[in-house]
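hey so i finally got around to running the thing on that chain from the lab meeting. sorry it took forever, my laptop kept dying and i had to restart like 3 times. anyway pasting the input first so we r on the same page abt which one it is
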Amino acid sequence: MFGTASRIRPALRAAVILTAGLAIAGCSAIYRNHGYVPTEEDLAKVTVGVDTRDTVAEAVGVPSVSGVLNESGYYYVSSRLRHYGALEPKVVERQLVAISFSQTGVVQNIERYGLEDGRVITLNRRVTESSVNDQTFLRQLLGNIGNFNPGTAIGE
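ok and heres what got predicted. didnt touch it at all, straight out
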């Protein structure tokens, strides 16, 4: 009888240690990187007053975002998010490089902004809403309880 208890204790201890280890690992931070920002070395290849849109695209790459107007500028955006378990992800680092062009398409200015230079703006995608209700199969099934009339189910 005591032999069984002595075998269960090490197994129980191992299970507790394993559970604690998984709980601690579940609370560790997960980092995700999004976007692209050219390095200082890449930006050094761009000369203000000389380079054009095409030469900028060749030197540092095509931007992920352009200005609202076609002639306004190139914007390179990079974000780093930290995520803990079930908590909402938080932006911990954001960089933006803005290259503005003159009306003739020549580089006018290069600016770099960080998260500390402004506030976080959530990008909103405009999507047309559909008329379809977001109901699961189970909700549709339970929603029909009481609406069923056996007299209409039999073909006349």
